[in-house]
Amino acid sequence: MKSFLKIFFPVVGAGLLAFILSVSIRANGGLAATFTASGFAFGFNLFKLAGLTAFTLVGFQVLTGPFMQFWTWLYGPAFYRIHGFMGVFALAFSILHPVILYWALIASGIGIIEFSKSYGAAYYLGPAALLLMIVTVSTAASAVFLHKPLFQKHWRWIHYANYIIFLLVRRRIARSGPFGGSFLSG
């Protein structure tokens, strides 16, 4: 059973990520429309895919974090490293998300203020979530790599911000993403 679960969970995780990205690609008009678009449309499509990847990885963090005892039983102590790399990749895609947007806006001559007006207050949820994510990943990295006693003592409390990040981004997707009318729109 343990061998089955070791394979089952990564396959389910990869399948879930593929499903979420496929919904976005389908909403763009399919693979051809997503990746052959030019100018702002291409950048905007990549922007959405990077954001959804980051959101999914944060979701995996939220789902695995409280159950570390189970995951270490299943995968051994190395799961802490897997969990850490998931966090680093979530942060990387979270940073890539606005970088791609700014690149697309600059390339198309659209100003950030003009772009942000169409999203209203939901626009500001993303930067708030990114700031919280930088804090959570930084404290975890400081606790693990720098062996700072203060961070080691308190990083778990700071990691509760992952739940806030997840909810902020969920709300933002509900307001602006391809999932309107689904479970994310509540």
Named at the architecture level, the CATH assignment is Up-down Bundle
* Number of E-state strands: 0
What's the structural domain tally? 1
* Share of residues in strands: under 5%
With helices defined by DSSP (H or I, 4 residues minimum), what is the helix count? 9
Helix content: over 70%
* Distance N to C terminus: 37 Å
CATH topology: Four Helix Bundle (Hemerythrin (Met), subunit A)
- Broad structural category: mainly alpha
What's the alpha carbon Rg, rounded to whole Å? Answer: 18 Å
User: Looking at the chains present, what oligomeric state does this protein adopt?
Assistant: single chain
Strand and helix order? HHHHHHHHH
Give average pLDDT, whole number: 82
Key features of this structure:
0% strand; Four Helix Bundle (Hemerythrin (Met), subunit A); 186 residues; 80% helix; mainly alpha
Structure description:
80% of the residues lie in helices and 0% in strands. It contains nine helices and no strands. Helix 5 (79-108) packs antiparallel against helix 7 (125-145). The longest helix is centred in the middle third of the chain and has 30 residues, at 79-108.
